[in-house]
Amino acid sequence: MPDFAITIDRLEKSFPRALSGWRALLQPFAAPTLEALRGISFQVKTGEAVALLGTNGAGKSTLLRILATLLLPTRGRALVVGHDSAREPAAVRRQLGYHAGSDLGFYARLTAEENLRFFGQLNHLSGSYLRLRIATLSEQFELGAALGNQVRTLSSGTIQRLSLLRALLHEPKVLLLDEPTRSLDALAASDFRKFLKAEVLQRQGTSLLFASHTLSEIELLADRVAILKTGNLLAIDTPAALKSASGASTLEEAFSRLTGHSAHFLQELAPS
Amino acid sequence: MMGVIRDLLVFFQRDVRIASSYRSPFVLELVEALFGAAMFYYVARFVDSPELRQALPQGTSYFAYSLVGFVFFDYLHAALDSFDRTLEEARDTGTLEPLLVTQVSLPVALIGSSIYPFVLTTLRVAVYLGWGSALFDFPLRQANWLSVLLVLAATMLSFAGLGIFSSAFLLLFKRGNPSKWFFLGVSSVVGGMLFPVSVLPSWLQIIAHLNPVTYALDAMRGALLGRANLSAIAQPLLILFLFAVLLLPTSILAFSWALRRTKITGTLSHR
Fold first, then answer.
1. Which of A108, A202, A213, B138 is deepest in the core (most CB within 10 A)?
2. CA A202 to CA A172: how far, in whole Å?
3. Whole-prediction pTM
4. Residue A246 C-alpha, separation from nearest chain B C-alpha, in angstroms
5. A174 and A4 Cβ atoms separated by less than 8 Å
C-alpha cells in the first residue's frame, strides 16, 4: 500500500465560460479559460486528516470532485491510494467515500433504508454485511427511527446525516467530505465530529480530506490545513505551525494574514 | 458478467420499489388499455374495405394489424424516453453524482434503469393484446411465441441503441433531444405502425427500409399474427440484430465521449 492516501501533483483545472443564447449549443466544445486550480501539489498521508480552507471559489470543491472522479483535471495528476483519478476511475472509486456539500441525492419515494441498501449494493456490499453496516452506522448516527421513513418526509439535517452514513457504508480507505456539517444543528454537528475523530480517523485509520468553513471543526479534526485562494495553494501545515509562521494567535487570524481576507469573511461562510 | 447482471437487477428492484409507492397508476393503465383496444376494434370495423384487405398480409384483419403496430410502437417510445428520463431524474433529484461515485459505471446505471420501463411496456402490450383477444377476437392463438420472444429481444436491443444516442445528446446539451421527436414522428408515418409500408410513395419506402421500426413491426406481425417460425421471419430478424450490433456499441461510445466532455467542462450535473 502506498504511503500516501492522496497525491496531488501540479494539478490544474480550468472551466469554459458559460455561453448563452444559441452559443449555448457550443458549450460542450468551448475552450476552458477560467482557472479554478492553478498547479497545486500536496499529499495526504495514510491515516491523516487534512482540511481545505478557503473562501468560496478557492477551488476546494473542484479539488474534491476531481478526486471523486466527477471532474477531469486540465493538467497534472490526482492519485487516490496510488490510482490516477483520470485514468483509473473505477479503482479510485473502490477506495473512497464521498459526501457532496450540496445535492445530497436520495430517492424521495424510497425509505432511508432502501436508499442505503441501493447505494450499498452498487458498492458491491453483500446482503448480511450491508444489513450489519446499516444497523451499526444508523445507531451511531442516531438514524434508527428514520430508516423506515421515505426520504421525502425527512428533515434536511437527517438527510445530511444519511448522506454522511452513505459515504462511510463501504468502509472506504479515503474519505472526501465537502462541508460535512453544513446542514446539521450544533448538537448533531458536534456528535458527528466526535464520531469522525474517534471511530473513522482513530479506530479505522481512514484518511480524510475535507472542506470546511468552520474553524473549530478544522482544529478538532485536521492534522494539517491546506489554505487555498483563487485556485492557489498558499500554505499547508499543522494548525500550530500555520499560526506560528504567520505570527497569529488563532487559526482565524492566520487565515486572515495568509489570504488577505478579513477574518469575519469565514464567519459569514460558516454555518450558524 | 454475473456482477453486471447483479448491478442491473439492483436498478430494477429500485424502480419496482419506487413504482410500488404509487399504487393506482397501473390499475388505471389496465382500464386505459381496454378502451384503447376497443377504439382500434371499432376504427377497424369502420375503415374496413376491399382495398385495405388487399394491402394487408393474407388473412390479417385491420384490427389485429393496427393493434400490433400501435402497441409495439410503444417500445420505441420506451427506448427513446427511458434513458433520457433516467438521466433527467438523476440530475433533478441529485442522485447522479452519488451514483457516479459508486462502483457502477454510468452506462450500466442507464441500462439498468431502462429495464423497468421495458418490462412495464411489455406488461402494457400483454394487457392490450389480452383485452383484444378476450373481447374483440384478436387471433392470439396464431402466435409463434419463440419467434415473438426473439423479435422482442432484437427490437429492444436495437431500440436501446437509439435511446442511448438520445441520452448522449441530453448529457451534452442538457435539454430534450429534438431529433428524438423527429425520429418518432418519421417512424410513426413510415415505420408501418397503422398501415403497410407498401402504400407509401417509393421514396418514403426507401426511408422506411432504413428504419429499424419497419423491421421490428414486420417481424412482430409475422410472429404474432402469421404463425411465422424463425425461418419465415429470418430476414427482418437478422436486419434487426444488425441494427443492434451497429447501434449499441456506437451509442455507448458516443455516450462515453459525452460523459468525458461533461467531466471536462464541469457540466455533468447541470440542468
1. B138
2. 14
3. 0.86
4. 35
5. no
The 10s digit of each residue's pLDDT in B139-171 is 888 889 999 999 999 998 898 888 888 889 888
Residue B176 has a pLDDT of: 64
Contact residues on chain A for B18, CB-CB shorter than 8 A: 107, 109-110
Across the interface, do B103 and A32 touch by the CB < 8 Å criterion?
no
Identify all chain A residues contacting B265, using CB atoms and an 8 Å cutoff.
Answer: 15-16, 27-28, 30, 32
- B7/A102 touch (CB, cutoff 8 Å), yes or no: no
- Across the interface, whether the CB atoms of A32 and B264 are under 8 A apart is answered yes
Give me B199's grid cell.
Answer: 402504400
Chain A touched by B257 (CB under 8 Å)? no
How many residue contacts between A and B have a Cβ separation below 8 Å? 100
B264 contacts chain A (CB < 8 A): yes
- Which residue in A has a C-alpha nearest to residue B15's C-alpha? A110
Q: What span, in angstroms and rounded, lies between the C-alpha atoms of B177 and A194? A: 49
CATH 3.40.50.300 applies to domain A4-101+172-269: yes
- Tell me the Cα Rg of chain B: 20
**Average pLDDT, integer, range B35-53:** 85
Helix (H) or strand (E) segment spanning residue A32? strand A32-45
Per-residue burial over B104-129, b = 16 or more CB atoms within 10 Å of its CB, e = otherwise: bbbbbbbbbbbbbbbebbbebbebbb
Is residue B211 within 8 A of residue B190, CB to CB? The reply is yes
Pair type for strands A224-229 and A49-53:
parallel
Give the model's confidence band at A272: pLDDT under 50 very low, under 70 low, under 90 confident, else very high. very low
Given B94, B105, B263, which is nearest A103 (Cβ)? B94
Is B18 close to A109, i.e. CB distance below 8 A?
A: yes
**CA gap B164, B82 in Å, rounded:** 9
pLDDT tens per residue across span B249-270: 999 999 999 999 999 988 887 7
- Across residues B89-105, what is the average pLDDT? 89
- The owner of cell 480517523 is A201
pLDDT greater than 90 at residue A51 = yes
Contact A71, A35 (CB under 8 A): no
Give the Å distances, CA to CA, from A34 to A121, A232, B30.
38, 13, 54
